[in-house]
Amino acid sequence: VRTLPPLVKAHFDNFYNMYDKDTNPGGLINMGTAESHLVNREVCDLLRKAADRMDLTGYNLHYNKFEGSDEFRSAIAAHWQAQHVHFDALYTGYIASAAQVRQVLDFFDTVKSPDTLIFVDPAMADHGRLYTGFGPDFPAAMAQVVARADVAMPNLTEACLLTGTPYREDMDEPLARMLLRRVAALGAKRVVLTGASFTPDKLGAMGYDSASDTYFTCLDRRRSGAYHGTGDLFAATVVGGMMRGLPLEDAVSLAVRFTLACIDATERDPHAGWYGVEFEKALPWLARQNNAGAE
Question: Cα separations (Å) of 210 from 150, 160, 168, 180, 215?
Fold first, then answer.
């Protein structure tokens, strides 16, 4: 019997018995697990009744395997358009295939208004490698989404892949500036390079505005270790900050500090790292920053 890695075992222990007081005493559920349960138990049941698709499962809905998924997504976009729904922003993250890239672009064309901001986190790679499941042609497909972005937020690996730049681990400021300009040359109006670090003790992000040809840097303390979900938290905080009226530089600064606050909160719990960052404990801090900015 193969022994599961600790992270994988913790995930399945939690997934199959989410409310067990022994395996999950804190009642924590990561967002991926919560989403899977919601899709499988609620959304799929509703869609089966509405579309009479008895073979529909959560896995197929997530990964575009069931026949008619293109029509389903198109129908959602067309319905919102018919209802004159206005989106202040559209925000994309992980996209599973080149076919889904085409669907995302079509969705933009259907529901975007002239003043809708598009945020793109081209989540496909890290540490010099594409995520499992992506082939060498996928960065060219993702570049089409990045080209539509008002704000693109790649990490170092993703910026290198998007622009055909040889990857190297030791980032310096000239490399960061070059990558920011090259990603902007794809069509993105503003670019934020996440995971920027120019000294051993600092980590954060560097941004570029192609219209004004200006750069900014937001760095804070570097913490040791790796924490799952920090990239998603960072990008979501940037989007939320800008939707509340913050300039991009201020939103990025807020996101850097909030991500660090989440890591600090997680480090105080010796078991939390298996389940991702305990962002809930840092939400009061984020709320205080938002309230202070509104005053």
Answer: 10, 18, 24, 9, 9
For the whole model, what pTM was predicted?
A: 0.81
Q: At what angle do helices 283-294 and 248-267 cross, to 10 degrees?
A: 150
Which class for 114: exposed (0-12), middle (13-18), buried (19 or more C-beta within 10 A)?
exposed
Q: How far is 241 from 252, CA to CA, in rounded Å?
A: 8
Q: How far apart are CA 177 and CA 18, in angstroms?
A: 45
Contact of 162 with 186, CB cutoff 8 Å: yes
Residue 254: CA count within 13 A, CB half-sphere: 27
- Per the DSSP assignment, residues forming a β-bridge with 207 are 192, 216
Give the pLDDT confidence of 215-248 residue by residue, as tens digits: 999 999 988 777 778 889 999 999 999 999 999 9
